[in-house]
Amino acid sequence: MQIDFIKCQGSGNDFPLIDGRALALDDATWSAIAIALADRAGPVGGDGLLVLVEGNGGAAFGQRMWNPDGSESETCLNGLRCVARLGFEATGLVEARVSLPTSTADAAIADPLAPGVVTIRTDVGPVSTRTADVGLRIDAPELIDSAIPGLPSDRRFTAVAMPNPHLVTFVDTLDEAELVALGDWCEAAPPLIPGRANVSFVTVDHGELFVRTYERGVGLTDSCGSAMGASVFAAGLTGRIGFGAPVTVRNRGGRVVASASQDARIAIAGNASFDYDASVEIDLANATAGPVTLRRRRDDEIFAWQAALGTPPD
Ligand SMILES: N[C@@H](CCC[C@H](N)C(=O)O)C(=O)O
């Protein structure tokens, strides 16, 4: 099949994005498209597949998101900004309620983070710290800055359902090998957390957060929006930052400005950058992609984002 897509990124989390509102495809087909398009060894590559869909329950439009391994996630918050942007362009709205598989979010065009950078604010919640919602098979009803019996780590974690599952720990120094080992352990769907989890190591410096995440279904990524949201909430719950105040959250891919409230709502403002528009042939039987036909390059957006990060254009 031939399909049009936009290659987009939010805070360096990059995705092929498809307007699926007029496409009647079943979940197995979307899963195969995700595997084909997100494959880093293929012609597109990404941290998953984003799909703009019709909204449910009065929402203006909706989002679905598949990981590169073909599993569907409950949410993707860097992706939500890109989906919302496409939804706004399709509907003429500048703010909207967005439906996700098990929750809703509010999205609105926001003041640019930097010149030329399309910026969207999303508000989600209430998020949950109930271990059952996170998918942890454990006696404790919630885990806030606590050791997790059975997890191969002595660190203290906060478990948050965004609603996708997150385990967040605050560290003095970021040990990537340790993060990968723990992420790999969760990725094997152990009895403690059979639905797997996104695992983040977070440092706090002068009121700013740096978040490094091993994503469920992906591995190490340059950025994960729901992890940044979970980290800000965990930082508030553990007194590392104040509730209500916007904080800068950095990662390998960029930065967002986020805040969490005591009643478990999380706001994130960040970029929703479109890099190029293209169409691609997908072999559904083999879940592979190619060739790609480029329709439009969006170099202005690429350069604006690079300038915002202080990196010279390639
Ligand atoms: N990168 C995303 C999260 C994507 C889903 C995640 N891998 C999961 O399976 O929960 C984000 O920006 O939130």
UniProtKB/TrEMBL annotation:
Pathway: Amino-acid biosynthesis; L-lysine biosynthesis via DAP pathway; DL-2,6-diaminopimelate from LL-2,6-diaminopimelate: step 1/1. Its EC number is 5.1.1.7. It comes from the Bacteria. The active site is at C76, C224. Pfam families: DAP_epimerase. Substrate binds at N13, N67, N164, N198, E215, R216, G225, S226. It is found in: Cytoplasm. It catalyses: (2S,6S)-2,6-diaminopimelate = meso-2,6-diaminopimelate. Belongs to the diaminopimelate epimerase family. Catalyzes the stereoinversion of LL-2,6-diaminopimelate (L,L-DAP) to meso-diaminopimelate (meso-DAP), a precursor of L-lysine and an essential component of the bacterial peptidoglycan. This is Diaminopimelate epimerase. It comes from Sphingomonas qomolangmaensis.
